[in-house]
Write a structure and sequence with these properties.
alpha+beta; Fructose-1,6-Bisphosphatase, Chain A, domain 1; D-Maltodextrin-Binding Protein, domain 2; 2 domains; 8-stranded mixed sheet; 9 helices
Amino acid sequence: MSLPSVPKLEEKLDKEKLDEALIQQARFVCEQAAIAAAEWRGLGECVAADKAAVDAMRAALMSLPISGKVVIGEGERDEAPMLYIGESVGKGVGAEIDIALDPLEGTNLCASSTANALTVMAFSPRGGLLHAPDLYMEKIAVGVEVGADVVSLAQTPEENLIAIAKALKCKVSSLQVCILERERHESLISQVRSCGARVQLIPDGDILAAITTTDSKSGVHAYFGIGGAPEGVLAAAALKVIGGFFEGRLVCRNEQERVRAEKMGIVDFSKIYAMDDLVRSDVIFAASGVTDGSLLDGVRFEDDGVSVHSLVMHEASKRIETTRARLPLSHLSQPHLYQPHQSLPRSAPSG
């Protein structure tokens, strides 16, 4: 079946600012990916869920009247058959757009029907987003209440915690830091706890973790740790709109990754990227819920349609809104929605 019609876009685009139609189109793309991924919720099929999201997101992007380029996404061309870094998407007309994307943030979360699986993407005018390979990135994020230039990757975790406590006028023991539960973070977790701060461990989903630092009611004051670089760029895009602070530093685990990065012009691996280095221009951030979570509800399948809960944000206008789209079953991009599933090889990619 064909995809639902997409909002029309004026062919001329201010190089510094994005327009209303692109905001709606970004949401449309995330909605389609979320619906496709949600079909695989709770079935234990990480690969199938991720493939469904990638296929649907790419199909939606190819339907848009844009000249889009994936600058940070599923991996290099030899690793990712679709939505690879450098891939051109859209109809090849209209606005020239850089795209950062994560078709399914939390493949394991979706496969186990656990909270906070999302589909996420960002649009920016050409040249507006960091062009980098799919490496790991060391990250730190705090909300606007902490303020800019308070924390830095150049400081130790202890120094950052003392600075956050001073900015918030509280004790370090009152702080809570969100960290991905990974073996590579054992030392970091120990350092944070030895300072007296609390640690909230999460299984996946560090885009949401960074966003959560901006919510004063969340009880999370900072996000520390190493995760994917695409997720870092997407988190920076969100915080640039909401307000907050984010820094990232690319991490090469081996010589092969170093060579890949150098081919893209990245040679200084000690460089700390501020938000304005990662997101250099106006940006649209969009996300749709796949499973129920703290930010968005998951996709709802009903007899007469499907509903999707989404968040869209635009830096230039400071627009932040959540929407609930309801689509008839005839508009689904996955026509086999209620048909038996064909199992794919199971895999649990680590974040």
